[in-house]
Amino acid sequence: MLRQSKEERTLKQNLLLASSTAFVSGVTNVAGMVAFLAFTSNITGHVANLAKHIVEQNFREIVVFVIWLLLFFAGAFLSNFIVRSLEHKSRYRAHSTPIIIEIILLLFVAVYGHNFYKETDLEREIVIGVIIFSMGLQNSLVSTISGGLIKSTHLTGLFTDLGGDVSEWLHPNVEKTTVIRNKIIVRVTVLSFYFIGAILGGFLFNLYEFAIFYFIPLILLTILYYDLSPVALHKITRLFWTEKR
């Protein structure tokens, strides 16, 4: 999932990346909503709230929402910067590093929320900011890897793109190409797994509360392992045959 550039990617690789990251976004967003009453995987609602607080002159809330928006931006910026800095050395390293950072951040949320969280306003704002930053990392990485095809946290753009693609597919004057079909399949996959993740996130948070954030990094680790496992298998096989000879 992580070794291929946007030009080399197959439908299967895009579907695996889309389903896993959209599932993570769905779980994270609903868990954040239940825990903090705030969206954590997208910023559209935060922009609306920022405008509301500006009108009402709630200066503390204005600062908080500006910081959250900047954190999503910073996550996206850092993710793309890392990819561009490392891709000439190793495409896998370039693509896996933002995921590793995301895993560390979500583990921090799990540990802090499960053991230390006292439900103060400052703690809530900091934890939300950490999650938003991690979602910025993920969304930018997935978009970069897929050439803009996959945006795992941005359903508004997804529905817009899906509507256009379906229109292309159904229009009598437009050829039904494999490219259009694959785009529709990928976008429906993102939507489906985001929805499944959202349902599961709400259900599991009611049962396990912050411990759910231990579960999310496991999904991200499977993304890292998917590309590592063939390499590890090849090395083990080569070592075995070398020793046998």
Main features:
245 residues, mainly alpha, 8 helices, globular
Textual characterization of the structure:
This protein is mainly α and 245 residues long. The protein is 80% helix and 0% strand. The radius of gyration is 20 Å and the shape is globular. The model is unreliable at 232-236 (pLDDT under 50).
Distance between the termini: 34 Å
Shape: globular
Q: What's the count of strands?
A: 0
Q: Averaging pLDDT over every residue, what do you get?
A: 86
Please count the helical segments: 8
Topology as a string of helices (H) and strands (E): HHHHHHHH
* Poorly predicted runs of 5 or more residues: 232-236
Strand content: under 5%
| Rg calculated over all Cα atoms | 20 Å
Major beta-sheet overview: none
Residues in helix, %: over 70%
What would you call the structural class? mainly alpha
* Assembly status: single chain
Topology summary:
Elements: H1 11-36, H2 44-56, H3 59-86, H4 91-115, H5 121-145, H6 155-170, H7 178-208, H8 212-244
Helix pairs in contact: 1-5, 1-7, 1-8, 2-3, 3-4, 3-5, 4-5, 4-8, 6-7
